[in-house]
Amino acid sequence: MKFVDEFRDPKLIRQAAQEIRRLANPDRHYRLMEVCGGHTHAIYRFALQDVLPPNIELVHGPGCPVCVLPMGRVDDGLSLARDHGVILAAFGDMMRVPGRTGSPLEHKARGADIRMVYSPLDALKLARENPDREVVFFAIGFETTAPSTALTLRAARQLGVRNFSVFCNHVTIIPAIRAILDSPDMRVEAFIGPGHVSTVIGCRAYEFICRDYGKPLVTSGFEPLDVLQSIVMILRQLEEGCARVENQYARVVPWEGNLPALRAMAEVFELRPFFEWRGLGFISQSALRIRDDYADWDAERRFSMPGVRVTDPKAAQCGEVLKGVLKPHQCKLFGRECTPEHPIGALMVSSEGACAAYYNYAMRKSDAVAV
Amino acid sequence: MCLAIPGRIVEFLPAASHLAVVEVGKVRRKVNIDLLREDGLAIDDWVLIHVGFAMSKIGVAEAEEQMRLLAMLGEDKQAMEELEGYRFG
Ligand code: SF4
Question: What is the pTM of this model?
Answer without folding.
Answer: 0.94
